[in-house]
Amino acid sequence: MTNVTLKYATRAVPRYTSYPTAPHFSADVDRNVYACWLETIDPATPISLYLHVPFCQSMCHYCGCYTKITKQEKPLQDYADMLVREVELVASKLPDGQPVSHIHWGGGTPSILPHDAFLRVVDALRRHFTFTEGMEHAIELDPRTVTQSLVNTLKEAGINRSSLGVQDFDLKVQESVGRVQPFEQVEKAVSLLRSAGIAEINLDLMYGLPHQSRETIRNTVELAAKLDPTRLALFGYAHVPWMKKHQRLIPEDLLPDASERIALFDDATEALADHGYEKIGLDHFAKADDPLAVAAREGRMRRNFQGYTTDEADILIGIGASSIGKMPQGYIQNSPDFAGWVRAIEAGDLPIVRGLEMDPDDRARAAIIMSIMTAYEVDVAAIADDFGVALAPLRACYPQLSELIADGVADRDGDLVRVTHAGRPLVRLVAAAFDAYLQAGKGRHSVAV
Asked: What's the number of CA atoms in the CB half-sphere (13 Å) around residue 170?
């Protein structure tokens, strides 16, 4: 199957953390539309919150996030104040005490917020929302910022899951991407988190970086497993210098080619399996008793902007500059222009600049793609029936699967489409067959493997 994977590895397709994908959002969905959507939310329905903090102390060359560099405290304090005001704006459109089942802090480096600023935002969330029993409260962390003081803050805030950006433990690789963090530093961060009772720990690893070899990535996995995380993610580096200009600091001739990327992924996957981690979806791994592994086996796993998740909420409210939210009606995005985001909030307006209202066909295709990306199979006819859409346009996608079926990546029995076990690394290509927007030419995407 290696030759087949190599054949498709450089084809560019979305990661399908949403459908339709963000390049197809437009200004037709604005703050007024969003306000109307918020006002339709059932007061008893648990929702999820995502808080984006677009600041880091330094820029990693591989970074694909929306973030800014600052070493000053005032911009962070000011940003926290604006987050509080946005929380209040959103909450004013919702019933008092709307239940929340998941909170996720992302960035950037959300832990860069000073102690009082971070807790100020958390206090605002507690005032306006009801945290459900067993609520997951997660944060993305840079191990270089984890101190005893920080973990005390996280414990006080009620954080119960953390995700540490490791990427690679090899010094030469780290130097090439501008992020040097010795194993001992990450080990200390993990120890501090566990001492504060934050035992649910994920490590993010990355393949496709400069100077990585099969030997170095296996060593990285060995060291990562030594830290005994409950989950790991193994992301392929997406080289998109046309979108992220700082990625030009990574010379393209140092990047592994398609065959080398496949070998790196396969070796890391094999090493993780040797340590007892189950492969979950496209790029996640978990211990057998982890809730994500259980959800995957029971068919309850979902996929959203944070990747694979146990979060089953149909409503995700994004807070912070550039953050994206998901409602039953469609998607909304806050202004990625930092100054524009601030101006809107200061004017008492929801800082929405674009989005997409989904029609029944969008919802059906989103469900198809979700099923393919999480369960590796889908009953197209059943979904058409569930969403009350015509089956013929969905069946019209089947010819796009022909080559993948011939190459053993997928198979089809009537309206039941499956991704083969060998074809799972190419699952995004199978999902792409049902993407009605992909041929429209908007957006440039990362390679399939």
From this structure: 20
Cis peptide upstream of residue 20 (ω within 30 degrees of 0): yes
**Any residues with CB less than 8 A from the CB of 119 and at least 6 apart, and which?**
153, 156, 157
| 334-339 LR contacts (CB < 8 Å, sep 24+) | 334/52, 336/66, 338/54, 338/68
Phi/psi of residue 281, nearest 5 degrees: 60, -150
User: Mean per-residue pLDDT for 259-270?
Assistant: 95
Mean per-residue pLDDT, 24-45: 96
Chain centroid, CA 110 distance in Å:
15
Listed residue (266, 259, 190) closest to 231, CA to CA:
190
**How far apart, in Å, do the first and last CA atoms of the chain sit?**
13
Contact (CB, 8 A) for 364 and 384: yes
Task: Tell me what pLDDT residue 3 has.
Answer: 83
> What is the percentage of the chain residues whose pLDDT exceeds 90?
87
Give the contacts of 141 (CB within 8 A, at least 6 positions apart).
Answer: 109, 110, 111, 162, 163, 164, 165, 189
What amino acid occupies position 248? R
Residue type, 58: S
Which residues make Cβ contacts (< 8 Å) with residue 323, sequence separation at least 6?
A: 50, 51, 52, 333, 334
Element (H, E) at 403: helix 402-406
Is the alpha carbon torsion for 91, 114, 325, 314 positive or negative?
Answer: negative
Euclidean distance between CA atoms 316 and 332, whole angstroms: 10
The pLDDT score that the predictor gives to residue 342 is 97
Question: pTM here?
Answer: 0.94
Residue 440 has pLDDT above 60, yes or no: no
Share of the chain above pLDDT 70, in %: 98
Give the whole-angstrom CA distance, residue 203 versus residue 225.
9
Which residues, in sequence order, are CB contacts of 81 under 8 Å at separation 6+? Answer: 117, 120
For 307-326, what is each residue's pLDDT tens digit? 999 999 999 999 999 999 99
